[in-house]
Design a protein that fits this description.
The complex is a heterodimer of chains A (417) and B (64). With 417 residues, chain A is an alpha+beta fold. Helices cover 46% and strands 9% of the residues of chain A. Chain A has 17 helices and 11 strands. In chain B, the strands form 2 sheets. A two-stranded antiparallel sheet of chain B has the order 1-4. Chain B has a two-stranded antiparallel sheet with strand order 2-3. Classes of the chains: A alpha+beta (417), B alpha+beta (64). Chain A: Keywords: Heme, Iron, Metal-binding, Monooxygenase, Oxidoreductase.
């Protein structure tokens, strides 16, 4: 990518920080050790300099906040804005920048502040509330069983990502939204481009536009022939224009695909790597709810941080973050913070991990978390129960981790049973 | 113990319902928090404190 394509860079430069202090880069390179652990440079920052400077992929720089308490402060404080249109807002990938700023149509409420954020979010809160999602358990269980039936039919090995971890949340979100699942290859590919750290701005823009066009088309179809999906209900409210509807639909579709799928596969892998924990969960299935919270904490798949930009000067620890400076909140190191989770680097399915912030914190905290929880609880419980001999089909070292993606996980998980 | 939940602040993520289902629920229309029992029995106090601590919007406050 050429400098000409990065017009925002100049805004991001931090005037009073010498270049050498910017040695910490995000995304940071993971150590050769445990691939479930946060990058060592970010871990070190949490211990030694919890509010520090970091350099992003495009050469711009921002603050990096790494402790549980500080991350909660930033994400819970309206002096830090989620509005991606503000100068200084830090973007983790070209795709995310495109998603947030490409056109007015591509703006979504996760990158806006209240009151606009609250207005749009509240149109969706009822759709994902706990009792509504709990009522979907039988349906999620049925889809889970069908996928496992197909995966195990006459075979004893498969790629768990392609045949189970990705299709399950994909089917569920399509069902909920009223999006035809037959189109899944189309939107899975586009959403992967948008979240890849390797995509160029042009590729990201094309993927972004194609998804928006698809959702706009779908909105028109729902206007003609409504069903009982979320998308139809949003259209029927009559409060949103076509652009707003399309970008909201796209956000839900991407969010529904990339997160639970990676948590499912990565959780399975983490349990296979921790046989003691796996055995404990198998012998005490009632631990599943707590185990899912612990896996969310331990794995924290949003591993490159949640972006904000300061709207006024704020002192955090002994650092002053100036108005207009970007901040990245490292959820993964916050979730390993010994002050809140003693022995935090260890996976312990019996731990009370409810204070984890894997879903973020503050008014932007993940809207779909009740759904993610139900899906993960059912997917993992069923998988472990139905496949008692589940094991890796290749050496651990050959598993392709998603170092190149904004959401962590594995590209494939070859398993046998 | 007395519970106050600020419906203006609530962002409807439902963590309180999971932490203390006997005390919190969500409104059918918009998923915003409702308090089922503003003065819950002592046995539920820990769960309520946990709910207040994990509420992402700082919408739940508790007085003893
Ligand atoms: S946890 Fe807080 S924000 Fe979430 S539903 Fe309960 S009161 Fe609302």
């Amino acid at each position: 990518m050429t400098t000409a394509q990065r017009p925002q860079e100049a805004h991001h430069a931090h005037p009073d920080t010498p270049a050498s202090a910017d040695a910490l880069t995000v995304p940071a390179t993971r150590a050769t050790g445990c691939p479930f652990d946060p990058a060592p440079t970010v871990e070190r920052a949490r211990r030694e300099e919890p509010v520090t400077r970091a350099t992003l992929w495009d050469g711009s720089s921002c603050w990096l906040v790494t402790r549980h308490e500080d991350v909660r402060t930033v994400l819970g404080d309206p002096r830090f804005s989620a509005d991606a249109a503000r100068p200084g807002f830090p973007f983790l990938t070209a795709g995310l920048r495109e998603l947030a700023t490409g056109t007015r149509a591509s703006r979504t409420f996760i990158r806006q502040d209240d009151p606009e954020h609250a207005r749009l979010r509240r149109m969706l809160t009822a759709e994902f509330m706990v009792k509504k999602v709990e009522a979907m358990r039988p349906e999620v269980q049925r889809l889970t069983d069908e996928l496992l039936d197909a995966m195990t039919d006459g075979r004893n090995a498969a790629d768990l990502v392609a045949e189970f971890a990705l299709p399950l949340p994909s089917l569920v979100i399509c069902l909920l939204l009223g999006v035809p699942y037959e189109d899944h290859t189309f939107f899975q590919q586009r959403s992967a481009v948008l979240l890849s750290l390797r995509s160029s701005a042009e590729e990201a823009r094309a993927a972004s536009d194609e998804l928006l066009a698809y959702m706009t088309h779908l909105a028109e179809a729902k206007r003609e022939r409504p069903d009982d999906g979320i998308f139809s209900r949003l259209v029927a409210r009559g409060e949103l224009d076509s652009e707003e509807i399309a970008s909201m639909g796209r956000l839900l579709l991407i969010a529904g695909h990339e997160t639970t799928a990676n948590m499912t596969a990565l959780s399975t892998l983490a349990l296979l790597r921790n046989p003691g924990q796996l055995a404990r969960l198998r012998s005490e299935p009632s631990l599943i709810k707590g185990a899912v919270e612990e896996l969310l904490r331990y794995l924290t798949i949003v591993h490159n941080g949640v972006p904000r930009v300061a709207v006024e000067d704020v002192t955090l620890g002994c650092r002053t973050i100036r108005a207009g400076e970007g901040v990245l909140c490292a959820l993964n190191t916050a979730n390993r913070d010994e002050a809140v989770f003693p022995g935090g680097d260890t996976l312990d399915v019996g731990r009370d991990a409810r204070r984890h912030i894997a879903f973020g914190f503050g008014v932007h905290q993940c809207l779909g978390q009740p759904l993610a929880r139900v899906e993960l609880q059912i997917a993992l419980e069923t998988l472990l129960r139905r496949l008692p001999g589940l094991r890796l089909a290749v050496p651990f070292e050959e598993i392709p981790f998603r170092h190149d993606m904004g959401i962590y996980g594995v590209h494939a998980l070859p398993v046998a049973w | 113990m007395r519970i106050h939940a600020d419906q203006e602040k609530c962002c409807g993520a439902g963590s309180c319902v999971l932490a203390a289902p006997d005390v919190f629920d969500q409104r059918d229309e918009d998923g915003i928090v409702v308090v089922l029992d503003a003065e819950p029995p002592a046995a539920l106090h820990d769960a309520v404190r946990e709910a207040a601590a994990i509420c992402p919007a700082a919408a739940i406050s508790v007085t003893d």
